[in-house]
Amino acid sequence: MLIKTPVDIASSEITPRGTYLRRREFLAALVTLPVTGKMVTTTDTQTAKQAITSYTNYYEFGSDKGDAGRNGAAFKPAPWSVAVDGLCAKPGTYTLEDIMKPHPLEERVYRMRCVEGWSMVIPWDGFPLANLLRRFEPSAKAKFVEFTTVMRAQEMPGIRRGVLPYPYREGLRMDEAMHPLTILATGLYGETLPTQNGAPLRLVVPWKYGFKSIKAIVKISFVEKQPLNTWQEANAYYYGFYANVNPEVPTPSYSQATERRIGEFFMRRTLPFNGYGDQVASMYAGMDSRKLF
Q1: Backbone angles phi, psi at 122, to 5 degrees
Q2: Distance from the Cα of residue 247 to its chain's centroid
């Protein structure tokens, strides 16, 4: 890198102070540029934005569905960086701008189903996780990807209650992580991702229950052994590693054969793999589907 001293720089080469100060405004705008591509994975009616942003599971802010919206005002999603480590050729710490810059935004509409038996249809703005992971050049020994959420008790009051073992952690098998339906979301409904929905960077894995789609990611690790995810650590009787939607397997407390779409009165039948079986079922061929919880 060439470094110039003040005496070497012509006045015409100096960036105006106002332009310099707006550099982060410009970079932040990359997150909300008009959509350049579109991948619609369902023809179902989208859930209302107000419902998506007010009815969430985010235990770092509280266990009530509205706690993240009420308690998230103090959370600071910028500046942001993600640490990358483990079995890869390019570990390091990458800013959100580093992560975002190479990726044209795509609008992807997913059916987002959560473990309690309710579901939503969300127009996520984001890009395929695989596009990012390839940049770090994972080694052949890397069989899984582990993700970690930020842990800031002063900004996230739910952490102080100790409901879960924090920081929140999740993981995917490498083929799951590289699947084109797996995305990193940076926005929804064409706007920057709100705090209560996982700002500034969250995972979306639409054929799995919602707890797999980890929010506010600050670390990505390439590992050889299957990582222990937070809900599995907290209650392995209820929660496993895969969390694939399987209506034929009830939880210890209730059936998962039906779900309630937010905004609708009647229950609807839950579909295997949340309706994405044609795209993802082959990854689990030969495995006992009743154990993929």
Answers
A1: -120, 130
A2: 23
Residues in the chain, overall count = 293
Tokens for 285? 């061929």
Answer whether 205's CB lies under 8 Å from 110's CB.
no
In the prediction, which pLDDT does 28 show?
35
State both tokens at 157. 């009051």
Round to whole Å and give the CA distance between 104 and 87. 27
User: First and final CA of the chain: distance in angstroms?
Assistant: 50
| pTM for the full predicted model | 0.85
Distance CA(121)–CA(261), nearest Å, equals 8
Structural domain boundaries of the chain? Answer: 34-291
Q: How far apart are CA 186 and CA 184, in angstroms?
A: 7
* Fold annotation for 34-291: Sulfite Oxidase; Chain A, domain 2 (3.90.420)
DSSP classification of residue 35? P
* Cα 235–chain centre separation: 22
For residue 6, what pLDDT is reported? 38
Structure tokens at 184: 């990193």
- At 136, the amino acid letter reads F
**Please, which residues have CB within 8 angstroms of residue 70's CB and are 6 or more apart in sequence?**
61, 62
